[in-house]
Sequence to fold (209 residues):
Amino acid sequence: MDTRLSHVMDKQQQSDMTPDAALRDLMVGNARFVSRKMIQRDYVKQAESSADGQYPKAVILACIDSRVPVELIFDQGIGDVFAVRVAGHVVDSCALGSLEYACRVARSPLLLVLGHTDCGAVKSAIDRLALGHITGLLRDIEPAIADTKGYARNAKNAAYVAAVVENHVHQTIDRIRDKSPILAEMEQNAEIAIRGGVHHLRSGRVVPI
Ligand SMILES: [Zn+2]
Fold:
């Protein structure tokens, strides 16, 4: 008998899920990932079941880093989460529009901003990399660098990079609230929660911050 999971999130499950429950669900999924106890899924059946609509529990804004595949590290299947991925999880108007769509139109109760250790975008910003469109993208990380006091500006210092990453997650959340009245109002009304976390590349663990 095929015991693989073929069920997908439905409308009722989504509307019953509080923002806190969605975060707990992701963290439990991350614990399954870290302990190699991931749910076995029938992805083809999940694709079929979700073809007529999607009711994701969360939208995750993460880096493009190839070592941060959000569905894998949170052990999520098809239809479970929206993933917005931009280098250094920088929010431009397209990213903001994607987050607003996920929360306001598609009714996901959780917005998670996920930084990660050893982020190449953060390290490049620290190193003042100037190249093509990368220059403008990295400019958005500069305020987090300016806010990280007590260190020399050195991308080879892992503790410093980790501190900048944390500050950048917090600042990204502030920026989302600041630039999106829609999301700020949804958060005030407790329709969504906006939370942050850091994914640790070596262990696979996500730590809420
Ligand atoms: Zn990164």
